[in-house]
Amino acid sequence: MKYSLLSLLRQGLKGHADWPRAWREPEPKERYDVIIVGAGGHGLATAYYLAKEHGVRNVAILERGNLGSGNVGRNTTVVRSNYLLNEELPFYEWSLKLWEGLSRELDYNVMFSQRGLLELLHSDADVDAAVRRANAMLLHGADAEILNREQTLKRVPIVDPDNARFPVCGALLQRRAGTARHDAVVWGYARAADRLGVDIIQNCEVTAIRRDNAGRAIGVDTTRGHIAADKIGLAAAGHSSRVAEMAGLRLPIESHKLQAYVTEGVKPLLDKVVTFGVGHFYISQSDKGGLVFGANLDGYNSYAQRGNLPNVETTIEAGVHLMPCLSRLRLLRHWAGVMDMSMDGSPFICKTPVGGLYLNAGWCYGGFKATPASGWCFAHTIARDEPHPLNEHFVLDRFHQGRAIDAKGAGPQPNLH
Amino acid sequence: MRIDCPLCGERPLEEFTYRGDASLKRPTGATADSQSAWSDYVYIRENPKGPHKEHWRHAGGCGAWLVVGRNTATHEISDVKLARPGRGGMR
Ligand SMILES: Cc1cc2nc3c(=O)[nH]c(=O)nc-3n(C[C@H](O)[C@H](O)[C@H](O)COP(=O)(O)OP(=O)(O)OC[C@H]3O[C@@H](n4cnc5c(N)ncnc54)[C@H](O)[C@@H]3O)c2cc1C
Ligand SMILES: [Zn+2]
Question: Which residues of chain B have pLDDT under 50?
Fold first, then answer.
């Protein structure tokens, strides 16, 4: 059923008791053209674009838990394209363009809200670096504005204007950046992919990758039996190293956890996404009124979706330092997600040394914004067996070639990216 | 998480800084085919879900480098040793 004003009226008259299920719950078939491992945002988007853009419809997505129980349902939903390097910026800007048309494309309201992102700058050096990045953004067709101190404080009056250690010297504003509703992105892609014939199979954990005598991947063993496939795409986010290992691959990735926080709901207080130069702190207000924020990684390898308390303390210190009024609020919830931190902070969308096996991984803490373009590029790479120019640099052997994509220059220390 | 420093006793997490996998072996020499050994050493990680040997430094305490056995799925710490026995302290 297409969602429209008419369908809403019709269902409304029937007391909303008659809406059809948004997607099917099929039994796995014996064989598919393509299997995608992991039904996070990236896996779902990949399956959707495989069917939509490339006519590959005999596709299954295998998910070990429930739909959206991974990072796609745990993130803080910031969408932006304020990147620096030629290898990454065009990709993120393409993603932002896809976001701008996504609700219409999927016939599902993903609540993409382009409320603007203000990146606060705290020193002359900060301003210089931001001007350089803003110029790179403009060159690649993204929008960017540099604001001075007065313009910045006028836009976010709750920022402490007298912070002596981190004074506000200005900001880099990207007006087209914003937030989206994470669950709606999952449901929208799932429904749209399902309508094109993709099988979404939940509670189906991949436990092994089968290969033929020539070493080519030919199928997977799962908790619901063996499933054969011509091509297999891995999109397991924080568990990428674990699934790649099933095909004998070792990745330039460490799994780390990141925490997120949400306060009780309050009246409108903050109408932009704001990022602070201290400890990666960033904050926005959800449509329900809760302030959603986060900061640094916990800092050590972990697969436990459980954050530590010292980091709660430093995150809240950073927040209160920036916006003293936050100290009056109560935290409702906080949680952690396991992320695939790559060695240069940049992702992989590529073929692998194993024939028939494709990799989508290394999204660190920034993969939500990439969801549409990541699926779009990964679908292209799988269907055509070659990368699109937008993802041609996101390859595994870039380290070996000395071509790391490390905008920050932090080096091969994943907890610092 | 609390780490039992062999020199200082059990101390809170905030006093320690993390470096990463302690099982990596630095390749010796530079021969024609050692390039991939070097790039593996610098960039490739086992990244296990379970027991993991890792380097931590007691930066907010005695300054010693430690090898900590810790489970990455449960955060349980099994053992803590000095990275270079007999050479604790700042230097
Ligand atoms: C706290 C937090 C805040 C974040 N904030 C932002 C933000 O503001 N903006 C932004 O752009 N990004 C953000 N991110 C990053 C973003 O959430 C991730 O990069 C992105 O969601 C990862 O891609 P995904 O959606 O496909 O991952 P996931 O949703 O994690 O999907 C991977 C799926 O693979 C499944 N899987 C794993 N192993 C197997 C197996 N063996 N068999 C079958 N299935 C398997 C998992 O169950 C999971 O559902 C944040 C992350 C966290 C944790
Ligand atoms: Zn000590």
Answer: 91
Looking at the predicted complex, does its ipTM rise above 0.90? yes
| A301 falls within a domain | yes
* Ligand 2 centre distance from Cα of residue B17 (Å): 12
Q: Is residue A98 a part of any domain in this protein? A: no
Q: Which ligand is nearest to the CA of A305?
A: 1
For chain A, the average pLDDT equals 96
Residues 6+ apart with CB under 8 A from A67: A39, A44, A186, A187, A190, A200, A202
How much is the average pLDDT of A25-39? 98
CA distance A405 to A386: 20
| Residue B29 tokens, joined | 């020499």
pLDDT tens for each residue of A368-388: 999 999 999 999 999 999 999
pLDDT above 80 (res A51): yes
Cβ A377 vs Cβ A349: under 8 Å:
yes
Residue A45 lies in a domain: no
Distances (CA, A) of A156 to A113, A127, A159, A168: 18, 18, 6, 11
Interatomic CA distance for residues A237 and A214, integer angstroms = 28
| Closest residue CA from atom 51 of ligand 1 | A75
Cα torsion at A269, A274, A277, A281 (round to 10°)? Answer: 70
Burial B5-28 (b: 16+ CB within 10 A, else e): beeeeebebebbebebbbeeeebe
Do β-strands A253-265 and A331-342 pair in parallel, antiparallel, or remain unpaired? Answer: antiparallel
Whole-number pLDDT of residue B30: 78
Q: What pLDDT is recorded for position A279?
A: 76
pTM as predicted: 0.97
Q: A336: part of which helix (H) or strand (E)?
A: strand A331-342
Please write the tens of the pLDDT for every residue from A124-174. Answer: 999 999 999 999 999 999 999 999 999 999 999 999 999 999 999 999 999
Residues with Cβ within 8 Å of B23's Cβ and at least 6 positions away in sequence, in order, are: B46, B53
Beta partners for A61? A36, A200
pLDDT at B10: 97
Q: How many separate domains does chain A show?
A: 1
Q: Are the C-beta atoms of residues A382 and A402 closer than 8 Å to each other? A: no
Q: How far is A297 from chain B (nearest CA, A)?
A: 12
The CATH number that applies at residue A326 is 3.30.9.10
C-beta of A345 in contact with ligand 1 (< 6 A):
no
A284 in a structural domain: yes
A190-234: pLDDT as tens digits: 999 999 999 999 999 999 999 999 999 999 999 999 999 999 999
Boundaries of domain holding A158: 116-176+255-341
Chains A, B: CB contacts under 8 A, how many? Answer: 65
Local structure of residue B6 (DSSP, 8 states): T
Which among A252, A299, A301 has CB closest to B52? A301
